[in-house]
Each structure stands twice: as structure tokens, then as C-alpha cells.
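User: Second chain of the day. Same drill as before.
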Amino acid sequence: MNRVAVVTGAAGGIGHATARAFSEAGWRVVGVDRQPINEYTGLGHTVQVDIADPQSIEAIHEHVMAREGRLDALVNNAAVQNVKPIEQISQQDWAVTLQTNLLAPFLFIQRFLPALRESRGSVVNVASIHARATKPGFAVYATSKGALVALTQALAVELGPLVRVNAVIPAATDTPMLRAGFLGDLERMRRLGDYHPLGRIAQPEEVAAVILFLASPQASFMTGALVHVDGGIGVRLHDPVVAR
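Assistant: Same format as last time:
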């Protein structure tokens, strides 16, 4: 019997690459997104809903259990990124961001917990470098991802030994969300890549490969792990003063 994975945010860059990676590894994949999802290679099907609506999570649970009867991995990837100076941040900005980036992952885990316990499955939360190191304008997004990291660690302690819970922490990744933020200015994106010790930003497939590993039996003794997929930028100082 094929293992089954649910991947949220499957229409986006990392989500789509993750759905494809799981599918090519022989998993049945249920892709979830509020946007139409382009078909990816292999097995599985898609559900178009907005996970910011808590009722949608119950609908997804019913769909998955009716179609598949099990769940082995849950990838909480869907997110919104609200970039504003603090003076412009509204309560609605907080509500939408926390509902999508934090509460929805929790509700997914809570609702699918019996199935995950039954399969001795795993959860992979997609956090962000902004959970650890951020910059102006990202207060709402960074807070939501920092809380997702804390949730990952808390649930790893609470749900072991039956369910593993880990997180990936990507830095800049070449996704439609990132490109939209740069308004098509590829030179600025190249300069962003230059700040990374590896000299470039990530490709979605590189993040997806780590997500697949964390969900697989090869990572069977990993839980509560925060795996940085950041090209080394998370350990690099950016002090402009250089010793001679």
C-alpha cells in the first residue's frame, strides 16, 4: 500500500516541488491550495480550498480519509507573507497571517492526529529563516514563523513516540512569492543570492528534497529538529566592518 501525504500550499513553488518529490518517490499525494493546482507527475489528487477557513480543514479530512483511508505525512507549507512597516500593520493583517501560518497547521495536526498515530506518521512544518533572523517590514511574518517553530518543538515532545514533528527553515527560495516581492528585478535577486555563502538562493526542489527526507523512514530518529536549508546565510554575520 502506498504511503499518503497531504501537502498544503501545493500550487506554490516549494509546495508544488514537494508534491512532485513525494509523488516521484511513490507516495500518494493530496495537494491542497486556495489557488488552482497545476497537475504534477504521479499519483494523487488535489483539493482547492482556503485553509484560513477552519471549516475547510474538516472538509479536507473527510476527503482524505474517504479517498485514501490513511495519512502518513502532513506537510504544512501554505503561508501568506505580509510585508509592511509597523505603522501600517493592522489587526486584520495579524489575523490573516496567524490564521494561515500558525493556527491552520495546528488544526491540521489536531484533526489528522488519529490517522497519523495509526500510521506512526510524521509532520513537516515549513518555517522560514525569518523565524531566527529577520529584517524591517517582516514583523508579522517573522512572528508567525517563530511561533510555528515553537509549535514544532512543543508537539514533538507531546506526540512522541507515535508521531514525529520536524521543521525545515528555508532562506530565500526561487518561488513565485519571492519573485513577486522583487517585481521582476532579477538583478536584485542575484544580489540577494550573493549574500549567501553558497552564492545563490535555493531552488524549490532543494527544499522539497529535505521535506521528503524528514517524512521518510530514513529520518526515523528525528523529531523536534529544525533543519536549515539556507545556503549558510543563517550563520553569516553582515557587519559592514571587515577586519584587515
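The chain is about 40% helix and 15% strand.

User: Great, on to the next one.
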